[in-house]
Amino acid sequence: MEINIFDKKEDMGKCAAEKAAEIIKDTIKKKGQANFVMAAAASQFEFLKYLTRMSSIDWNKTTMFHLDEYIGLSENHPASFRKYLKDRFINKVYPGNIYLIKGDSKNPEQECDRLNRIISDYVIDISFVGIGENGHLAFNDPPADFDIEDPYLVVQLDEICRKQQLGEGWFNNLDDVPKKAISMSIKQIMKSKNIICTVPDKRKAEAVRNCFEGDEISPNCPASILKKHNNCFVFLDKQSSVYLK
User: Fold this and answer.
1) Around Cβ 206, how many Cβ atoms within 10 Å?
2) 8 A C-beta contact, residue 128 and residue 38
3) Residue 181 lies in a domain
4) Which tens digits make up the pLDDT trace of 66-78?
5) How far apart are CA 167 and CA 137, in angstroms?
6) Is residue 212 assigned to a domain?
7) pLDDT digit string (tens) for 121-157?
8) Angle in degrees, CA 161, 163, 166, rounded to 5
9) 56 partner at 20 to 30 Å CA-CA among 19, 106, 120, 171?
10) The pTM is what?
């Protein structure tokens, strides 16, 4: 794992996007196409702003998978991650193939099975992720399951996670925040050949310290597992890194 720290979140997002573009273009050059996983979160705003401006990427030669989605929200809901990805990414670059999570499926377990069958045919070249205020990776809240083999699974969202979504302005009150989601599993994320983790803002500083300071890897700090990945590039701003020694 490599940690990069920047004074401004704009510089953090720009450099993360440049690293992402480098990996995607190199992958396409080597094997003709690239497969990636995209997160939808406030932590990705600056990263996506710059990544969508990278005109040198042939997005038509890419396949996109979706990291996580709330259960029970329609795609038109303001907090829908599908809406987020379409507005901020998909409708700007138009990846060649797109596999989104249907969070409003009547049977979430069947939706997981559908996605699991699809992704089993792919090697993921790069995943774009953040970490939560509780240290979660995707929607794998602590204590996260590091051992489950399924690529996608139904998860319970803890109160810290749900309060984060409320605090970011996605919902009007806590009761509106779903209690369940479909999330990519820890093991599936770790199968990515490369990972770019972008984490801005002071509210993430304690989670950054708990996950990345020292050598301990614990399900109680789910993103700490990233320390085991040889090609994980973490991008922090001055505020999120303030508690690192």
Assistant:
1) 15
2) yes
3) yes
4) 999 999 999 999 9
5) 18
6) yes
7) 999 999 999 999 999 999 999 999 999 999 999 999 9
8) 115
9) 120
10) 0.95
136: which 2 tokens? Answer: 């979660």
The CA–CA distances, whole Å, from 199 to 64, 68, 130, 176, 228 equal 21, 17, 6, 25, 18
Query: What are the backbone dihedrals phi and psi of residue 239, each rounded to the nearest 5 degrees, phi first?
Result: -70, -45
245 in any annotated domain: no
193: its two tokens: 């050949």
For residues 205 and 207, what is the distance between their CA atoms, to the nearest angstrom?
5
pLDDT tens-digit profile of 160-210?
999 988 988 888 899 999 999 999 999 999 999 999 999 999 999 999 999
Give CA torsion, residues 237, 45, 18, 33, to 10 deg: 140
CA distances from 1 to 33, 76, 103, 110, 130 (A): 25, 37, 32, 35, 14
Strands 34-38 and 62-66: parallel
Q: How many domains does the chain have?
A: 1
Percent of the residues in the chain that have a pLDDT greater than 70, as a whole number: 100
Residue 25: both structure tokens together: 């273009």
Domain assignment present for residue 197? The answer is yes
Report the CATH number at residue 50.
3.40.50.1360
The C-alpha atoms of residue 235 and residue 51 are separated, in whole angstroms, by 14
Residue 115 CA to residue 65 CA, distance in Å, equals: 9
**Is the CA virtual torsion 21, 59, 34, 74 positive or negative?**
positive
